[in-house]
Amino acid sequence: MILGSVNANREAMIQIAVLNDGRRSKSVRTIIDTGYTGDLMLPRAIVDELKLTLRGIQSAILGDGSLKMFEMYASAVIWDGQVRRVEVNVSETESLVGMGLLEDYKLEIEGRAGGMVKITTLL
Fold this sequence. Notes:
Layout: E1 2-6, E2 12-19, E3 25-32, E4 40-42, H1 44-50, E5 53-61, E6 67-79, E7 82-90, E8 96-97, H2 99-102, E9 105-109, E10 116-121
Parallel strand pairs: 3-8, 4-7
Antiparallel strand pairs: 1-2, 1-10, 2-3, 2-6, 4-8, 5-6, 6-7, 9-10
């Protein structure tokens, strides 16, 4: 189970550990974005700090329905107590967890500031 909370802007937030190939980690506070189809979006500063390796370019659908091309880096996260490989897109936005990372999980959000965010496996 993964727990988080809703911030004052009514954004569902969770904390995750992002790993590079050398297993160096960085704790990152992320916003859950159910309109983003990718796994994880990180600002360039975090990607550069972790020295992630560029794997290519990929498209992702954003919350407004638009399709955008992003640099894609391979990484891993600690997800539900396990190391999970993820594709990281780079953008100058906030750190986002998308539907790719939430696949096979149930997301529950208490829709108020300070509300609970709970992510549990469906398997």
